[in-house]
Amino acid sequence: PTILDFGLLSRERAKAQGADHFESLCRPILAAQGASRIQKSNPRGHLMQIKRLSVILVAIILVGITIFAQTLIRDEERLRAQDILQKGNYLVSLIALHPIEDFSGEKNNLFLKTLAEQVSSEGLIYCFIHDRTGHPLVSFVNHNIASKIPPDISMRSLYVNGLTQQTFRLIGSNTTINEFAKPVYENGQKSGIVRLGFNVAPVSLFSSE
């Protein structure tokens, strides 16, 4: 090789070394630009993640509230059913202790007045007291409910020999009734029947009670 060839070879090497040096200098700049682009695109990704997490969190809260509300309603219904059962059994048994003559004449009016004042606001919607033939001596009823009571309910109550409780719906209505019935006995003989009906009102979380 001649001196000229060595000169050309030196120039090529210099160019190659210069290119490598230029690439090494540009590499950090390109990396910084790539990082800058990633940083610019990340906020959108973060916003999407935040929105998704927010939706999931709201859904979890709503499910929790629903489960909590259903639990409260079930507990309230159970407590109300127990309260009606105790109240009905006690009241019908108390009335059945009186002789059937106490529910006729002027005593009848006094009994109805006392009954209306004491328990009409506690869910009692009707009270029937029948003599031994099934004839009603006392008929304390709200809103013509008597005609909506299923006949088989009335027949069973009239012919029971002890305390009984029946749950039913009024005819043509979604109103649920708990009826308590107990015979009146005098001198070991059945002289009448006491029947009480309580309204099983649906439970509401927004009730004022």
Low confidence ranges:
2-10, 203-209
Main beta sheet: strand number and arrangement?
Answer: 5 strands, antiparallel
Count of DSSP E strands?
Answer: 5
Task: Encode the helix/strand succession as letters.
Answer: HHEEHEEE
What share of the residues lie within helices?
A: 55-70%
Residue-averaged pLDDT: 76
**Head-to-tail CA distance between termini:** 111 Å
- Overall, the morphology is rod-shaped
- Strand line-up across the major sheet: 2-1-5-4-3
Give me the number of helical elements. 3
Strand content bin? 15-25%
Whole-number radius of gyration? 43 Å
Structural class: alpha+beta
Can you describe this structure?
By secondary structure, this protein is of the alpha+beta class. About 55% of the residues lie in helices and about 20% in strands. It has 3 helices and 5 strands, in the order ααββαβββ. The chain has helices spanning about 5-95, 105-120, 150-160, and strands spanning about 125-130, 135-140, 165-170, 175-185, 190-200. It has a 5-stranded antiparallel beta sheet with strand order 2-1-5-4-3, sandwiched between helices. The radius of gyration is 43 Å and the shape is rod-shaped.
Task: For this entry, give a set of tags.
disordered C terminus, 5-stranded antiparallel sheet, 55% helix, alpha+beta, 3 helices, 209 residues
